[in-house]
Amino acid sequence: MSSHAAAGTIDHHHDPSTSTGIPNKKLIMWTFLASDCMFFGALISTHLIYRLHPAPGSPSPKQIFSLELTSFSTFILLMSSLMMALAVTAIQKGNVKSMRWSLLTTIFFGAIFLGCQVYEFEEFVKLKNVTLTNSMFGTTFYTLTGTHGIHVAVGVFWLILMYVRSFQPHEAGRTFGWFFKNCLHITALVGAVLLSMFAVLGVVHTLHAGGTAGAYFASYLWMIAGFVGCVAVCIGFAQPKALSNFGEANAIDVESMGLYWHFVDIVWIVIFTAVYLIEYL
Amino acid sequence: MSAPVSTSPDHAHGHEEESKFQIYVNVAMLLAVITGVEIVGIYLPFAKWVIVTGLVILSVVKFLYVIFYFMHLRWDKPFCTILFFIGLVLSAGTVWALIAIFSVKDSLPLPT
């Protein structure tokens, strides 16, 4: 896998080596997304059918949902789609550095979205008494939004893999330890994402409990220290010693991943209206 | 796997790539504005069916902007659009059929 072509010489919308003229990776991704549409269609309609089955004694969905939080996470996911599109444009021009920054921003926004979802689920279970098993509303709601959340988590992990992959050196500069180094890089990045999510959740819990900054740092010091450590390791690995073999020829890999990420965004566009906004009418 | 190298690089293609940044930012801003309109819309004193219709139309607009611009369907071969819309039509049919068979009121438990 190499990228020795000069930037801008590759036609990213046409592949003469396939009978359809469409790169195989793109075609398989569109086929998968078409099938995933039906999967989410079934989940959304099931929730729409059973949404009037709350747990006995629990408040109405309008009182359960937080429109501010959901609107914020919707906005964050839209912006992550913008950054993903910019990452694809950057790599199509052979600009690997710009692509890496765009991917990191997309990972950051994806982690915020997941953090909001974890916070929302925690609130619903602990404060609003909406669990997976105590009502049909809870079952269909958690199945739908949880499946979407798993898609986002898979997308974030894929983004991390692609980001680390962009540092892979040329065959000539590749040593025995590059695989383990990449594994450590991935672990540090995943650790940074998870610890930052939990650190932010800790801020929210401390604020809810009326705690101070001192109390927060005392309770979550290990989390903050771990996050800083993971970020330091990531910064260390982001200084490539050898020339990377990642370039414009890999644009199709980034584009396929981008298609998946945008699909997660369009599913949320439907969920935001069909599950959340509809309850306020 | 390497992408194919074109034998005749087109300068117009380069200009198109250059303007894509502007297009993406504009689309993202439009999507954010539409989301804001949706949130405000649910509080407007109109009939429920009017607001629901409005929300569905706005969601469809957002959906189409994402798939045609961010997902490049506008610039890709029509076969990708056809392929995805096959899944989309089947999905819409599934939703319609399920809701037609099990309507929301029918799913309510019988009073005991």
User: What is the averaged pLDDT score of chain A?
Assistant: 87
First-last Cα distance of chain A: 54 Å
What is the alpha-carbon Rg of chain B in Å?
21 Å
Low-pLDDT regions of chain B: 1-9
Helix content of chain A: over 70%
Oligomer: heterodimer
Helix-and-strand structural type of chain A: mainly alpha
> Largest sheet of chain A, if any?
none
Short description, anyone?
The complex is a heterodimer of chains A (281) and B (112). Chain A has 281 residues and is mostly helical.
Structure description:
The complex is a heterodimer of chains A (281) and B (112). Chain A is an all-alpha fold and 281 residues long. Chain A folds into two domains: 24-166 and 246-280, Up-down Bundle (Four Helix Bundle (Hemerythrin (Met), subunit A)), CATH 1.20.120.80; 175-244. Helix content of chain A is 71%, strand content 0%. Chain A contains eight helices and no strands. In chain A, helix 1 (24-50) runs parallel beside helix 8 (251-276) and helix 3 runs antiparallel to helix 8. Chain A is flat. The relative contact order of chain A is 0.17. Chain B has 112 residues and is mostly helical. Chain B has two domains: 20-76; 77-107. Chain B has three helices and no strands. Chain B has helices at 11-41, 48-70, 78-101. The longest helix of chain B is centred in the first third of the chain and has 31 residues, at 11-41. The N and C termini of chain B lie far apart (64 Å). The relative contact order of chain B is 0.06. Mean pLDDT of chain B is 84; it is low at 1-9. At the A-B interface, helix 1, helix 3 and helix 8 of A face helix 1, helix 2 and helix 3 of B.
How would you describe this structure in keywords?
heterodimer, A: 281 residues, mainly alpha, Four Helix Bundle (Hemerythrin (Met), subunit A), 2 domains, 8 helices, B: 112 residues, 3 helices, 70% helix
